[in-house]
Design goal:
Blueprint lengths: L10 E11 L5 E12 L4 E5 L6 H9 L6 E6 L2 E2 L9 E4 L11 H7 L8 H14 L15 H13 L5 E5 L7 H18 L2 E6 L2 H7 L2 E6 L4 E7 L11 H13 L1
Helix pairs in contact: 2-3, 2-4, 3-4, 6-7
This protein binds adenosine-5'-triphosphate and magnesium ion (MG).
Adenosine-5'-triphosphate (ATP) binds next to strand 1 and helix 1.
Amino acid sequence: MSAATAIAGAIEVRGVSKWFAGNDGQPLQVLDNIQLEVAAQSVVAILGASGCGKSTLLNIISGLVTPERGDIRINGVAARDFDDWRSISYMFQEDRLLPWRTAQRNVEFALEAGSMPRSERESRARESLKLVGLDSFADAFPYQLSGGMRSRVALARSLVQEPCILLMDEPFSRLDALTRAQMHEELLRIQALKQMTIVFVTHDVEEAVVLADHVVVLAPRPGRVREQVAIDLPRPRDTTEAATAQLTHQLKSLI
Ligand SMILES: Nc1ncnc2c1ncn2[C@@H]1O[C@H](COP(=O)(O)OP(=O)(O)OP(=O)(O)O)[C@@H](O)[C@H]1O
Ligand SMILES: [Mg+2]
């Protein structure tokens, strides 16, 4: 077992509040006393309207942004003392691929900060591309790939370090409905295989209902937890089926 997989991946957000400087220079409260627990190896959706602080919350969980109040615990350890940052991966809303690198070299990029030998970086990146079904496009440059393929490369890059926690900020929002549905299937297949904790942000209620074990609904200005809903429906989930449709309706009424 690698060091990354040895970590269970539970996250606790404890009383997190965040302020930014507003346009008028006055402090603007963006998050208010956010309290949540993410069970290890579960899939959690953070759902809310635009501007309610979803990305800020994900940035705080990832350690990119520091909250004024509250803290994050990863696997029971204060995030500031959690030194294995390789085990947390962040997939941004934009794919952020380097245009001058092939798919393979883009995936390898995620491993370049460490001391891993080049041959191992190469073989891990190949494996990761294979996992997302893109091994035959390893030598393609981003401009030669479709939007869905680029998303797959970005996903492969997020997975190559074998994270125990994958944070995703609306990663599929730019894709057409059909490609998005394919990516949902892929993600669930990979999650079942790798047993990661996934926290993803979305404003797409159907996406939350199809993917999540647990949905956290944020209310805006300042962002706070309005409701938490556990989803205990078998997968794959069909949004036209009665139970999922009813849940979708319930969640839509909350945001
Ligand atoms: N670095 C920053 N400085 C000042 N204000 C910020 C900063 N980052 C975010 N904000 C403000 O915080 C609020 C929440 O932003 P955030 O990006 O977290 O929202 P979001 O829920 O992710 O929205 P969207 O769905 O549109 O991506 C917004 O009002 C935004 O203007
Ligand atoms: Mg956002």
